[in-house]
Design goal:
Pfam families: Cytochrome_CBB3 (PF13442). One of its GO terms (molecular function) is metal ion binding. The protein is of the alpha+beta class. The protein has three domains: 6-113, no CATH class; 128-223, Orthogonal Bundle (Cytochrome Bc1 Complex, Chain D, domain 2), CATH 1.10.760; 239-357 and 365-390, Glutaredoxin, CATH 3.40.30. The chain contains twelve helices and 15 strands. The strands form five sheets. It has a seven-stranded mixed sheet. The chain has a two-stranded antiparallel ribbon with strand order 1-2. The protein starts with 5 loop residues before the first helix and ends with a strand. The model has no long low-confidence stretch (mean pLDDT 88). The structure holds heme C.
Length: 391
């Protein structure tokens, strides 16, 4: 069967299904049929639509799409039949026929187990403060099994019945945030009901549980191979101060603008302003450098946690971070990591999860490395798929 390219309709279908489930959850919550779980409305059902399956099983997605069309047609036909006596018989028959003929998908394929927190949204905004808090939680409670580098080779790992998974993989990107959160608080069990991953519900507060998820994402980027972050990362939220103005959240300060974070420790020379992006200096103590000439970058992160967060994301020890740069695109995704003392080039691209990911590109000789990088970032925006839903 000839059909339009999947991107054209699959995205719309997934967004529709996500919105529908969220609307159902709000309705149930408003009617008092479901309470709260860990601070947000609890998903009351044991299953949810497996967006992640629809994404890879186009046949199933097509069945869902056609069945939805049939359903809408049947509802319209029945409504029309109520209003239009003369053709009632024909309309009802047409509606019934659509329902019978629709290729209803199998529930076993369409639905996956859900947790009460499946649809929870992280409240942290991936802030540098959350990443720093998460780093402390991780070192204290998780590194013994998952390893300080997240590769699943902590000192306790070998003694477990099941080896902990490596977090430096697309695992975190594929799981819905709310279900990662649930697994951390409620623990996990194997097929025989034996605990595999311990539950931290009695040990961690909600803020800490969300924070450790942020830290794991930063860690997975830092440990990822060059040019290939397993998890697309947002530009971390942080308070910044530009010239003498009062501090503002980086996300509020400018929309639709590329951002460059530059780690400077006073010894390293300050970068020049560049009109192609907002430059934000990150210093070890959260204090802007004492004297910043006008033509040098005039904005600096206020939080001392920014240094640690950038180090985790860049996969660099904090003591060797100076000079490292991170570039975020207009959509607010981190896309490239610059190495001190080296010109920008295509090899600095760390997030290529856009629709053309993996496609080989002919280098454009007419432009310098940074310009080519910026052009490519704009030409290949990130379409981030999480749990099957495109964000
Ligand atoms: C006693 C060892 C141990 C400790 C401590 C531990 N984990 Fe795990 N973790 C595991 C094992 C084993 C699994 C695999 C469980 C499975 O697949 O059934 C796992 C799985 C996970 C997963 C994958 C979840 C998924 O959806 O597949 C995440 C995320 C995770 N752990 C995070 C954490 C965090 C965060 C902490 C600290 C707060 C932590 N773990 C502490 C052993 C541990």
């Amino acid at each position: 069967m000839n059909s339009p390219p999947p991107q054209a309709w699959l995205n719309a279908l997934l967004v529709l299904i996500e919105k529908f489930q969220l609307a159902l959850l709000s309705l149930w919550h408003a009617l008092g049929l479901t309470g709260d779980s860990h601070g947000q409305p609890a998903w009351p059902w044991a299953r949810r639509v497996a967006g992640e399956t629809l994404l890879i099983d186009l046949g199933l997605a097509r069945q869902v799409g056609l069945s939805l069309c049939a359903l809408v047609f049947a509802v319209l036909a029945i409504t029309a039949a109520l209003a239009w006596r003369r053709h009632r018989g024909v309309l009802l028959a047409a509606g019934a026929l659509a329902l019978v003929a629709a290729p209803w998908p199998s529930a076993a394929l369409l639905l996956v187990p859900a947790a009460p927190t499946s649809f929870h949204a992280s409240p942290t905004r991936f802030s540098v403060d959350a990443i720093a808090l998460g780093a402390r939680v991780y070192a204290q409670h998780c590194a013994s099994c998952h390893g300080a580098d997240g590769r699943g080779e902590g000192p306790l790992a070998a003694s477990l019945a099941q080896w902990p998974p490596t977090l430096v993989s697309p695992l975190l990107a594929r799981r819905v945030d709310g279900e990662l959160f649930w697994h951390v608080l409620a623990g996990m069990r194997d097929r025989h009901g034996q605990p595999t991953m311990p539950a931290f519900g009695n040990v961690l507060g909600l803020r800490e549980a969300w924070a450790v998820i942020d830290y794991m994402k930063a860690l997975s980027a830092g440990g990822g191979a060059e040019g290939n972050w397993p998890v697309p990362l947002r530009l971390p939220e942080m308070a910044i101060r530009c010239a003498d103005a009062a501090p503002l959240a980086l996300s509020q300060w400018r929309g639709d603008q590329r951002v460059r974070l530059v780690a400077v420790d006073g010894m390293a020379s300050l970068p020049f302003e560049d009109p192609r992006f907002l430059t934000v200096l990150v210093t070890p103590d959260g204090q802007p450098p004492a004297q910043v000439p006008r033509f040098r970058a005039g904005c600096a992160a206020v939080s001392s946690h920014a240094w640690q967060a950038v180090a985790a994301i860049a996969g660099q020890s904090p003591s060797r971070l100076a000079g490292t740069q991170l570039l975020a695109d207009r959509g607010g995704w981190l896309r490239a990591r610059g190495t001190p003392g080296r010109q920008w080039s295509d090899a600095d691209l760390v997030c290529v999860s856009g629709p053309d990911a993996g496609a080989q590109r002919a280098p454009s000789p007419a432009t310098d490395g940074l310009t080519a990088l910026l052009l490519r970032m704009d030409a290949e925006p990130v379409r981030f798929v999480k749990g099957g839903f495109i964000h």
